[in-house]
Specification:
Nucleotidyltransferase, domain 5, about 575 residues, DHBP synthase
């Protein structure tokens, strides 16, 4: 049995394919279209999913969609009517997309895919809940979903047991932690639904003391929080329910000035506001989780929704709440709901036993040795071939130890927003200049942005004050932990300003080449840790194909590309080739 899941028309369009209870393919549309956060119907991602199994749409038994559009439209109409006439401009500008796309999902699926079977619409937060629980290692767990907004729900909790999911309570629009975080993101001059993680990274540069940060108490004028974690926004500080921008004039007045202009200087006030927002978010989430544990009496926790990507808070959950174990899937945001959709149909609606557990994120396209060599030869790209894996590992580790920057292209592309060792850029964390080099000459992004350390799971506890045993979400770069102080100066390029690191752990069975390269680097440097950052530049999606990888290397300060068993040196290839569209892609 094949089930296809689809998410689109808001942000991060994606598709996933389930075969007999197991996810066999999943990818975001942006990786193929090369349009960051692509919202369009995921034709290319669907094509990949079907071709990966050598099937056509006629072989698909069910198609599932990640939300219920008519209920969502009901909410949109309700909010515009309530705010009329202030909302008229936005209502008129948004209506065509509803009429032409969002309310015509059935006809779009049937027409574009030539699909003749059943289409099932899954409640958005149920999709989140299923995406976290049904592929987790737990037979029973508390479930918490927190995002901007689905149809009406913004926050929910419940219990998963076996195949069954029961969402017990929720908080509804316009009250939303996700929209609060996005509103302050917009106020700080960053892009909503894209740059919330930048605010999270900026926060440690601010005052993280609740007693002395002046904006911390001011933000509690914006949100009223009860002891059980329920909360309500004071809507005079927001405009997202009727305008095309989020902070109101009252919010700007409260926070001491106008919205920061993009690319302008980030001053200490901005840093302190980011810190206050992070602290407020953590306080609300801790109250929610403590209440959920009390109500469900479950020691296992699964989470989903965009707020579940707040890795700074995730690393504090087991220490600050009664939960003993936690699991979060790598694409916890809206794009990841398709995982939940297909499993909810297969396991919960159809009643099939759970047999699949997500243990790695390598669900995207992979290219074999022959395909990659054909690409290199067709385009007269100079390369050398490693004789075996041992030579590949030793050479890659040596290049990193010599402070070279490596593009690392191996196996299947990762599912979710993080590069996890298949579409990564690797460098030495011991080089104090690596952070500045990567931010300015490779990634072309803000200087305050931190880089993540990758460490083998059996070495993590030596360098990081992490939960023990190391939670599996750490494999997906979803947890931030303190770096032990004795290592701060030895791994400066992955130690953030507050002494923390958003570490990725890697287990040998997940990616042997990656694991062994880190271990080999450790033999050379005495510290088995590498910088791992996504293989892309600012504003572009993570690379997908050999073409994308080569183009990215040639347009940046990446020194070498390790692609399957081939080594490409940037300085040995024509500098003008990276921006040419004339060379062969296949």
């Amino acid at each position: 049995m094949y089930i296809l899941g689809i998410s689109c028309y808001y942000h991060d369009s994606s598709a996933a394919l389930l075969k007999d209870g197991k996810i066999v393919a999943a990818a975001e549309e942006e990786r193929f279209s090369r349009k960051k956060h692509d919202t369009t119907f995921p034709d290319l991602a669907i094509k990949y999913c079907l071709e990966s199994q050598g099937i056509t749409i006629d072989d698909v038994d069910y198609v599932g969609f990640y939300e219920k559009p008519f209920i969502k439209f009901e909410r949109v109409l309700s909010q515009h009517l309530e705010c009329f006439p202030l909302s008229l401009k936005v209502f008129l500008s948004s209506t065509p997309s509803w009429i032409n796309e969002k309310l015509r999902v059935v006809s779009k699926i049937k027409k574009s895919l030539k699909y003749k079977g059943d289409i099932l619409f899954i409640d958005h937060h149920m999709g989140h809940a299923a995406s976290s629980f049904l592929v987790s290692p737990f037979k029973k767990a508390a479930i918490v979903t927190v995002d901007g907004v689905g149809e009406w729900t913004t926050t929910s909790y419940g219990i998963g047991e076996g195949n069954d999911i029961r969402l017990l309570k929720d908080i509804q629009f316009p009250n939303s932690i996700g929209l609060l975080y996005s509103t302050i993101t917009a106020y700080l001059g960053f892009t909503v639904n894209n740059s919330e993680y930048k605010v999270m990274g900026l926060a440690p540069y601010g005052n993280m003391d609740r007693k002395t940060n002046p904006w911390y108490n001011k933000l509690f004028k914006v949100v009223d929080v009860k002891d059980d974690g329920s909360y309500r926004l004071n809507m005079k500080y927001f405009k997202f329910h009727w305008a095309d921008r989020m902070p109101s004039h009252a919010m700007c007045s409260l926070l001491g000035g106008p919205i920061r202009k993009p690319e302008s200087e980030v001053d200490q006030r901005h840093k302190d506001i980011a810190a206050a927002l992070q602290m407020v978010t953590e306080d609300i989430m801790t109250k929610i989780l403590n209440h959920v544990h009390k109500e469900t009496k479950c020691n296992n926790l699964v989470m989903a929704g965009g707020v579940a990507l707040n890795s700074v808070y995730n690393g504090k959950i087991l220490k600050n709440t009664p939960f003993k174990k936690i699991w979060i899937q790598p694409a916890a945001g809206d794009g990841g709901t398709v995982i939940g959709v297909v499993h909810y149909i297969y396991n919960t609606i159809l009643g099939n036993k759970r047999t699949y557990q997500m243990t790695d994120a390598n669900l995207g396209p992979k290219y074999n040795t022959e395909q990659i060599q054909t690409f290199l030869d067709k385009n007269n790209i100079k390369y050398t071939t490693f004789k075996n894996d041992n030579e590949l590992v030793k050479t890659s580790a040596k290049l990193c130890h010599e402070n070279h920057v490596i593009g690392w292209f191996q196996d299947g592309m990762e599912w979710g927003p993080r590069a996890l060792g298949c579409r990564s850029i690797l460098a030495s964390p011991c080089n104090p200049k690596a952070k500045e080099l990567l931010n300015t000459k490779v990634k072309h992004r803000e200087k305050f942005r931190p880089f993540a350390p990758v460490v083998c799971d059996d070495d993590a506890a030596k360098y990081f004050d992490c939960d023990k045993p190391v939670p599996e979400p750490t494999d997906y770069m979803l947890m931030v932990y303190p770096v032990f102080k004795k290592w701060h100066k030895k791994i400066p390029s992955v130690t953030h300003v507050d002494g923390s690191g958003r570490l990725q752990t890697i287990r040998k069975h997940q990616n042997p080449r990656y694991y062994n390269t880190i271990k080999e680097f450790g033999k050379l440097s005495k510290i088995p840790i590498l910088i791992n950052t996504s293989f892309n530049i600012r504003g572009e999606p993570i690379v997908c194909t050999p073409h994308d990888a080569y183009k990215c290397m040639m347009g940046t300060g990446i020194d070498y590309l390790v692609m399957d068993k081939f080594l490409i040196k940037r300085s040995e290839n024509p500098k003008d080739m990276w921006d040419s569209e004339k060379y062969a892609i296949d």
